[in-house]
From TrEMBL:
Residue ranges constituting the VOC domain according to the UniProt record: 12-163
SUPFAM superfamilies, alphabetized: Glyoxalase/Bleomycin resistance protein/Dihydroxybiphenyl dioxygenase
Protein name (Swiss-Prot/TrEMBL): Glyoxalase
Pfam families: Glyoxalase
Length: 184
């Protein structure tokens, strides 16, 4: 299924901007562990902090702000308290639950092992399908995406995700959106 935007011509996500506690640790993780090139750095005027951009492929970027006076991290509020399969994956309205980075399906297992070799705590591989549990312990024809989740140094939940088939059809859009209920 190809969806067409008749209002605007979008080219994907330009960048996602997150907030980090320590820019040096953020650079070490994204550039040195994940291998993302650091492509732009800014010192904010008035000594208000920094803003750095990393290339995550296809002309897309992940950016970080560092603010010297930013409030601290609140797991379970601004981000999930745990990785999928390891506890509550809920986060508050308006929060960034996780950031999925597309990786090639043929490299997925290699990249999973590479994260583990670099000492990054990861979830087991999740083979997402349309079964009742929505995951399969092994690859089947029903698996549409493979995922592994991990946290960055600031508790941002990241996912390496690999599509495993060529496209979706109208049958893949089969659920009515739910409305929020108002408390009595």
């Amino acid at each position: 299924m190809t969806a067409e935007n008749k209002e605007f011509q979008f080219g994907g996500v330009h960048h996602v901007a997150l907030v980090c506690r320590d820019m040096a640790k953020t650079v070490e993780f994204y550039r040195d562990i994940l291998g993302m090139p650091l492509i732009k750095t800014l010192e904010l005027p008035g000594n208000r902090g920094q803003h750095f951009f990393f290339d995550c492929g296809n002309g897309d970027s992940i950016a970080f702000f560092w603010f010297p006076e930013a409030p601290g991290y609140e797991p379970g509020v601004a981000a999930p308290a745990a990785l999928p399969t390891q506890g509550s994956f809920v986060s508050a309205h308006g929060s960034l639950n996780h950031l999925a980075i597309k990786v090639p399906a043929e490299k997925f297992e290699e990249y999973y092992q590479r994260l583990k070799a670099k000492g990054v705590p990861v979830t087991p591989i999740l083979n997402h399908d349309n079964s009742e549990t929505q995951t399969s312990p092994e690859m089947t024809d029903e698996v549409y995406v493979r995922s592994v989740y991990f946290f960055d140094p600031d508790g941002v939940c990241l996912e390496f995700a690999a599509w495993t088939h060529d496209g979706f059809t109208e049958a893949d859009v089969a659920h009515e959106p739910r409305r929020a209920t108002v408390a009595a």
